Amino acid sequence: MITTLVLIVVAVFQVAFILSMLTVLFVANQRGRRGDALDITVTASLRDPARALMLGEDQGQMLAAALEKLPGDVASRHFRSIVASQLAQDQREALAGLVRPAVWVDRILAGGSSPIWWKRMEAARLLAVTMAPSDLALLTRLVTDRNPAVMSAAVGAIAGYADEGLIELVVRRLSKCASAVRLQQMRALRSHSELASRIVVSELASEHSAQQTCALIQLAEVLGTTHALAAVVPYASNPSREVRTTVARALRNCFSAEAVDAARLLLQDADWRVRAAAARALAGLKDLDAVDALRLALNDESWWVRFRSALALGALGEEGEDALATAAISDDNYARDMAVVVGGLSESARLELSA
Hints:
Blueprint: H1 2-54, H2 61-68, H3 72-85, H4 89-99, H5 103-110, H6 117-130, H7 136-143, H8 148-153, H9 155-159, H10 164-173, H11 179-189, H12 193-204, H13 210-223, H14 226-230, H15 241-251, H16 257-266, H17 272-284, H18 291-297, H19 303-314, H20 317-327, H21 333-343, H22 347-354
Helix pairs in contact: 1-2, 3-5, 5-6, 10-12, 11-13, 12-13, 13-15, 15-17, 16-17, 17-19, 18-19, 19-20, 19-21, 20-21
């Protein structure tokens, strides 16, 4: 009797579970259909106003008015899509100025103070295309948000708005960001390269933790300005392995005698990661005087150092090729095998591996 009752209870629960799953799938399907139908309708309603703006027949008033008739989330999604894919820079700026005072924009941007992270993210996405000077406090809050997704969404607004205080804040907080967000913010700071470089040089002149120093050096590499990269060179003798490795990676874009000397010094470093990055830097700097040092590095105990050194020799013209050919017939197994492998690669393959 107990067994029969248990089976009945299990069967009832299974049937209820299946019915609930079917209900959820049905509701989701219906919602998706309604969403698709709404998107088709909205796209059709915005097509003519968007075309008029693109052809110069209208200054964006028609499109702004059409967006104001839509639900806020729908208007935001379609506005961002149109701005990103269909308009020139001056058209984007004109349309943003018309849309910014709209009620639906204010409502979504107000979500930037919400405890719900996805509302803050939606505000950050919209702010990236409607940023105005009055929104600086909101942008500052979003680029320092505790959620990486929100910080990532706010990156677009950084690129479009140059405020020294904001950029200084972003630069100083880079080491605290997730790696993906940090790289996004660094790339956004290229839009303000001179200002950001000035801040980086000032920060590198002060004492920081190894983590902070690495972030600043990475930013200098991404910015690629002469004075930012020059400020990196003195850190080649830093006691931190992570810092020296980061310096070696950045040096390949620093075309100065001091950078070449630093890269040669780092090729003799005790850590294999630093030596490998230094070999790559010497290739980027086209330092023909480093051929002998790179040839010796083909005997390095680290496979990665030997590989990077061989690629570097292959990038240094005839002298480097001669060094590879000599190593390919040498008695050292390490040097010979690596020289044969790299020497047999096509030029395009070497370029791809050296990137």
